[in-house]
Design brief:
Six copies of one chain form a homohexamer.
Chain A: E1 2-6, H1 12-25, E2 31-35, H2 47-63, E3 69-72, H3 80-86, E4 91-93, H4 94-105, E5 109-113, H5 119-128, E6 135-140, H6 145-150, H7 153-171, E7 175-178, H8 187-194, E8 198-200, H9 201-214, H10 237-240
Parallel strand pairs in A: 1-2, 1-3, 3-4, 5-6, 5-7, 7-8
Helix pairs in contact in A: 1-9, 2-3, 4-9
Chain lengths: 242, 242, 242, 242, 242, 242
C-alpha cells in the first residue's frame, strides 16, 4: 500500500522529518513518500499561505502517480476538501486526524500550535468537525514553524514542554494535541514527560489512512467530493479576455 | 498486539460473526478475540438494555486478561466511557469509529440502524461527538438486531439495501454508516451495490484501535478517564444497611 | 402520592440525609421513600461508578413496588434514561431538575460539584440539555462526596461557601447550583449567606416530580422511552456459550 | 401561597378558562388569580403583539399586590425576562415550563401552536432554552388563538387532534406540547386519545412555580434580573424635549 | 432617502449626539432624523427598560410619517422584531449591524458595553445571530449609559480606552465593537488609538440600512414579519372586563 | 471610492454581467471594476475549483492597484479569508453579504444555488457564520453556473422561479437568497414576482463594502487577518530540492 504525504509548505527539511516519522510509525508493508510543492510558501502561517499551498498541492497530486491514500501534513487541514474531489483514495488532514483521535483517548484535550494567527483557523476547524466541547483550548507557543527546525531541538523542546504543561493545567485537559506538522518528532518524548497522551497528527493520519485503505474505503465520488465536472464554455476564453 | 472486542449483547452467533469480520479486516499480527457477557441482554435495544450491558461489560473486562486495546461492538457506544476509566489501552465504540470515519470520506452521511428507539440515542451521540451537520439523518430499518441473524441473509440484505437506497436519496448523502454491529457482514456487498462508501463500525474500530496501539497511545489516565479512586467509607456498609 | 428517591450510591447515611431533606420540602400528602442499591459503589465518582450504579438501580426498581414518580439523586443523572424505559411514572435526575430550575431563576448560573473528574460529565449533560450559554461554568470543590459526610458539617460548609463565593464572582453568575446530592443540607444556609438562589437538585426534583404526577403526566411509552421489547432468541443462550 | 397568572392578551374569556384550568390543577392551599391587561392586544400573534403585551403586563404587575409567584400564560414567553427584573417571586412562562417538562417525559417532542407566524418565535425560544435536539418540530394548526374560543369546542378539538396526530407521526415524536394558552382545556382529552404525554404549559407552569415557591426559591436579584436601577438624568427631561 | 433613527431611551442629548454622528457618516442625499419616545426610560439598562422602550417605540413609529428605513439605536436591539412587523422599510438594530460588520473585518471581536446586566442580553443576541465563535467576549465598562454623557468626554474616553485595551488583550481579539449607542462619538478616536477596527453600531446601521433601501430591499411581509392581523373579538372587550 | 469586484471564475461574460449589476446598484461616485483571473476555472463548482480560484485571485490582487474595498463574487466566499490577510480595505464575499442581509429582512430564509455539490459548502459557511436557525434550507436548481448564461434568459428564469416558489413553500421561508453570482440579473424580477425579498449577493456586497469604506473601516491588521509575515528560510530552497 502506498501513501503520499503532502507537506503543504516547501520546506524540504520539514518534509524529510515528516517522512522519517511516518516511516517509523507506519505498518510494515506500507510504502511512504513525502513530498512538498516546491513553489509553496516556506511555512503555512494563516489563510493566505494556506490558499497558495492548496493550489500547489493540487498541481503536485495532478502530476504524481496515484497513491492508495493521502495525508496532508499541515494542522490547518489546508486543501483537504479540494484534494478529496480529485482523488479516489482517502485523504486525511493531520488536524482532523489528531483531533478525532484525541476524543478517543481523553475527555478533554487542548491544542498547542505555533502562532496566534493560526488559532482561529484551528478553532473554526474544530467547530466544523464538531469537537467544540471536547477541545478546551487552542493555544500558540509563539514559536514559528521554521523556528522549530532552526532552534536546537533541545531549546525548542523546552519551550514546547513548558507551554504544554501550562495549558494542560489552565484548561484542565487530559491530553495534548500537537498543532503543527513540525512538532512531530517531539511527540513521544513529550508524552513520556507529561504523562498524558500527546497526539501527533502526522503519525495518527498515516495510521488512520492505512486503516481506511485496508478497509477498501475511499473518498466518496457521489456527492460533495465527486470528481469536478468537465466544463466547456459556450464562449471561448480567448474572446472573454480579448 | 491483542485486541478484545466486546459485544455488549449476549448473542454468541453475533459475537462469532463480529469476530470473523474483525479477523478478516485486521492487520497481520493482530490477535483478535471477541467476547460477550453471558448475562447481558440478547440484543441492545434502547437505554435500559444498554445500562444492563454496560455493567456486564465492566465485569467481563475485570475478569479478562488485559488486552492492548478494546472495541465495543454496539453502535450506541454503550459503556465506552466507563470502560475507558478502568482500562489503560485505547477503547473505541463502533458508533464513534464509524461516524468519525464517515467524515473523512464524505461531505454528508446518513446512518441506518435497526429500530426507531435507537434513533435518539444515536442522534444524541452524534451531537455529542459534534457531527450534527455532517450527519444528515439517522434512520431505522425496523429490522431488529436478532432478525438480522434469523432472516436468511438475502432477505435481510434486501431490506437493508432498499432502506439504504431510499435514505441516501432522501438525505442527499454521500456515504452510509451501518448503525448496528449485526450488519457488519453486509458492508462490502452493500458498498459495491450502492457505489458509495459504506462504513461498518466493527471493521473501522478494529483498524483505528490498531492504529492507536501502534502509536503507543492509550486512554488518558490523568482526567475524566483516570482510574476510579479506591473508596473507603467512614461508616461500614454493614452498618449502613443494618 | 408516593415518590421513590433512588440514591445511586450505597451510602446509607447520605440516603437518610437525602430522605430527610425530601420529606422536609415535599408537599403535604406526599409519601417519600429513599433507597439505595446495597451493592452499588459507595459514591459515584465518574463514568464507571455511574455504570455500576445504573445496573443496581434497575434491579432495585424492578424489585420495588411501583411508585407514582421517581427521583435519581446523583447529579450526573446516572441511569435516568434507562429507568425511564422501565417505569411508567415520571423519572427525574437531580442534575437536570436543578439546572432547568436555575434557568427559571437566573440569567446565568454556575455549578459547584465535588471532584474534577465529574466536571466533563456534567458539562456534557448541560450541553445535551441545551443549557450551555446559561451555565457559565462547572467547578470542582475537590471535596469528595463521602468527605461531605465525614468532615464536620461546619468544616465542609466553609469549604463549599468559600468555593461558591469564588466561582460566582469569577463566572459573574447570578445563581449557584449544588452539583452533588450530598450537599443537599447546605442549600438553605448557603442561599442565605450568598444572597443568590442556591438550587439543590434533590429538593427541586422532588417538587417537579410531584408536579408532573399531579398533572397525570408520566414517561412517554411511545418512543425512545417505550418499555423494552421482550426478546426471544432464535438460538438458545445455552448453545451460544456452549 | 398566592400565584398570579398573567394572560398577556386582553381576552377575558381566555383568562377565565386559564384560571379554571389552573385552579383545577394547583395544589390545595394555592390561591390562584388570573388577570389580563385590559389594553393589551386581543391575542398575541407575533412580535408586535408581544411587545405591546409586555408593556401592559409590566403595568399590571406594578399596580397589583405582590404575589408569591407568577405565570405568564402566553407560549411565546412574552415579557418573562422583563417581569423577572421587577419581581422577587419566581416568574415562569408557559412555553419554557412546557418545553422543559417535555424533556423530562420524552426523548423527542413536537410543539403544536396556532399560526405559522409564531413558529419562528417558538423555535428561537427553544434554541435559546437549548432544547433544539429534543424538539423535533414546531408546527402551526392555522387555528388562530381566538378561534379556539369561537369555534365550538368539538370542532376546534377535531382540528387540533388531527394536526397533532399528523405531526407526531411526521416528526416521530413521543410527546406533544400544546403551543398556546388557549389550548389548555384540550390537554387531558387529547392525551387520552393520543396515548402520549400532552403537555400543557399553563398547568405545568403553575405546578413548577408552586415548586419553586415551596423551596423558597425566587428570582435572582444579583445579576441580569436585578431590580432596575433608579435613574436620574443630569439633564431634565423637560429640557430634553423643549 | 429618509431614515428614522429611533433612540429607545428618552435622553434628548444622546438622541442629538446620535443624530449628529449619523448625519456625519451618512451618504449625501440621505435625510436623517433621530427621535426618542418621550415617555421611555432615560436609559435602557436591562430587560425591563427594554420592554418599556419597545412599547414606546411602536407608538412613536405609529405616529410618525413612514421613513424609507429605520435604525434602532440601542445595542440590545430592543423592539427590532416588533418594529419589523409594523414597518415596510428595513429596520436594523445597532447591535446586529455592528456585530455582523465586525465579522466582515476581523477573525475575532470583543464587545464593550456599559453595565454587567446588559452582558447576558448581548450574549443571547450574539448567540441568536449565530456569532458565538466570532465574538470572544462581551464585557462591561461599569460606566452607565448616562454617565457617558455626564462625565467630561475625556474622562469617559479614558475609561473606555483603558477597558478596551484590556479586553482586546485578554480575549486576543482583532476588533472592538462598541456596545452602546452612547459611545458613538468615541469610535473614530478609539480606532486611531487602538490600531484595530472599532465598530460603532449607529454608523454601521445607518450605512447598512441605506444599502438595503438602495437595493429596494424591505422587511419581508410574507412570514414572521408580516403585518399584524386585524383582530375582531367574538366577544366585546367591554363585556370581557365587565 | 474604488471597489474591485473579483469574479473567481474566468467567465468574462459573467464578469461583465456582474459589473453591470454592480454599476447599476452602486452609489453615485463609486467606481466599480470587475475582473476575473484568466487562468481560473470557468465556473466554481465545488472545493477544487474554489481552491484553484483562490490562488488566481491572490495573484490578481497582488498585480492590481489597491482598491478601497473588494467583493468576491462567488457565493461560496472562495478565498475571502486569504484575501483579507493581504489587503487593507474591507473584503466581502457575496455569500456572507447576502446571508447577513437576509437576516435583517426576514425571520427565515432559503438559499437557491446551482448544483447539489455546492450545497454542503454553503451549509458549512452558513453554520460558520452562525446563521443555522435563520437559514431553513440550501437547495440546488441543478442549473450549472454556465447554463445560466447559455440558456436564453427566459428559460433559465423560469427554472429559477419555479424552484424558488417550491422551496419557499417547502421551507416556509420569508425571503430568498440567490446562491450564485450568475443569478444576479434575475433578482429584481424574481422579487417582484415572488412578493418576498430576493437577496442578491453581488448587489448587497457592493453596498455593504461601500458602507464599510465610508466608515473608514478596513480589514483588521492585528490578528488572524494580519499581513503574512516575511519568511526567510535558514536553509536555501535550492538545497531543499536539490
Amino acid at each position: 500500500m502506498r501513501i503520499l504525504i503532502i507537506n503543504p509548505n516547501s520546506s524540504a527539511p520539514m518534509t524529510r522529518s515528516i517522512e522519517e516519522t511516518a516511516r517509523r510509525v507506519c505498518s510494515s508493508g506500507t510504502d511512504i513518500t513525502a513530498a512538498c510543492p516546491p513553489d509553496s510558501p516556506l511555512s503555512i502561517e494563516g489563510h493566505s499561505d494556506g490558499a497558495l499551498a492548496a493550489y500547489h498541492m493540487l498541481r503536485l497530486t495532478d502530476q504524481s502517480d496515484p497513491a492508495d491514500g493521502y495525508v496532508v501534513a499541515c494542522f490547518d487541514d489546508t486543501g483537504v476538501d479540494a484534494l478529496r474531489e480529485r482523488l479516489a483514495g482517502p485523504v486525511l488532514g493531520i488536524g482532523e486526524a489528531a483531533m478525532h483521535a484525541a476524543t478517543m483517548l481523553a475527555c478533554r484535550f487542548s491544542v498547542l500550535t505555533t502562532l496566534e494567527r493560526s488559532v482561529p483557523i484551528i478553532e473554526d476547524n474544530a467547530a466544523r468537525y464538531g469537537l467544540g466541547i471536547r477541545c478546551r483550548g487552542v493555544h500558540a507557543s509563539d514559536l514559528p514553524v521554521l523556528a522549530l527546525e532552526e532552534s536546537g531541538d533541545d531549546s525548542a523542546f523546552s519551550i514546547i514542554r513548558e507551554a504544554a504543561t501550562r495549558i494542560l493545567k489552565k484548561d484542565r485537559s487530559d491530553a495534548l494535541v500537537l498543532g503543527c506538522g513540525g512538532m512531530t518528532h517531539f511527540a513521544e518524548r513529550l508524552g513520556n514527560e507529561l504523562g498524558v497522551p500527546v497526539v501527533d497528527g502526522v503519525s495518527t493520519a498515516v495510521r488512520f489512512v492505512e486503516s481506511l485503505i485496508g478497509l477498501n474505503l475511499g473518498t466518496s465520488k457521489a456527492g460533495g467530493y465527486a470528481y469536478p465536472r468537465e466544463k466547456t464554455s459556450p464562449i471561448s476564453k480567448e474572446d472573454s479576455h480579448a
